[in-house]
Amino acid sequence: MSDKWINVAVVGTGKIYNDAHRDAYINKYSKNIALIGLCDRFKDLAKEQFKWMKKRYQRLLKRAKKKENTDDIERIKFALDHLKVWKEYSRMLDDLEGVLDLVDNCTHGAGHIPLSVEAMEHGYHAMSEKPPGLNWWDVKRAVEAEEKTGKYFQLNENVCYERPTQRCREVIMGGKIGKVGELTVAFGHGGPYIPYTIGETGLPHFIDPVLSGGGCLQDLAPHGISKAFWPVGPGSRVMSCETTVLERRKNPRIMSEKPFESPVDDWAEAELILHDPRTNSEYTMNVVTSWCGSPSAFPFGIEGEKGTLSIAQNPDSKKYEPVLYPDDPDEDQVYFEVEDDPWEPFRGHIREIQIFADHILHDTPSSTPASYALALQECLSIQYFSKLQGKEVTVEEMDEWGKEIMDNHDDEQLAIETISLELVKAVDLKT
Asked: Is the entire prediction scored with pTM above 0.90?
């Protein structure tokens, strides 16, 4: 590892890499990362991304030489000299021994944990996209891998790296709203519309429980929940949940003008009880998630003793900032200024990579480590489990249920897939 930048290899060069991650490696604020590997089971896809990246790096190198920027010249030249393509993931990990620092895991949900754990066991740090895993038991493996290997894991939940969200955490941790009492989360859109990856079932990965772990809860709830849950602070965890609605309202699901029979949820409503270790108190989270359009014009609120915190455009600065709406209507709302930092100002998918690289260079864990990935996934899985049981359930009850399934299987991955298949049986197939 260089003491100036982190060497990164990507596994999975499809949609999320193409649309969100690859720009991080050529972003003008990305002075601390160099892309040296691209891996995809569809090697032609990886080759296309290789050509694209090589051309951009050559352009950046020319610009750096013109400006006589020696640090950029060294980093970009290193990337160009080492950038290669692989089809076999394990081969890439072996070939890059002694050079690679971090794996950027852009595969579908079923690959997030196994491939990240494999990278960590090879001696590399790892980051992966949402959902954290197929289910909460899957994500336990990332927590164990961090502890066992001493390598850092990051959940690439981009909303946690947007500056207003990060400022919300600072506001709450600074005691500006007092004890947190209730989170309100409503997040949704029309659902997936392109079948990027087709699994063995013939279903696009978005609606294949073996590849995704579920429907809108697995796809969108990580964004919506993280907007309010992550700012509460480290160590917060769900205690119990009662799911009132878990339905498939739209069927068939049309993707690229082709109908698919969907077995997963596209609308969910639940109330969760969580613990806040900062104040040693409980709070509730009312969450609605949808693939049937936006369920609310007000996406989230964090209610505390001193009012409700959200994010809005400051009419004076014109920036989006945390704002506290006091309970007393006679009091003025308070905006909390969002200060600049060294990273990409607006795009969370880029910021998350830049910031994690900085953490690795300074030997500090991610702001969304495996423990957060597990806490978030528990919030997702318990919504399925509550509806499956038809009652309010605790996380301990869910753990006991999951352990019984794990104990009945010799194959760990098969057991985890079985848990997901059992959980989605809770979905009320309305149509």
From this structure: yes
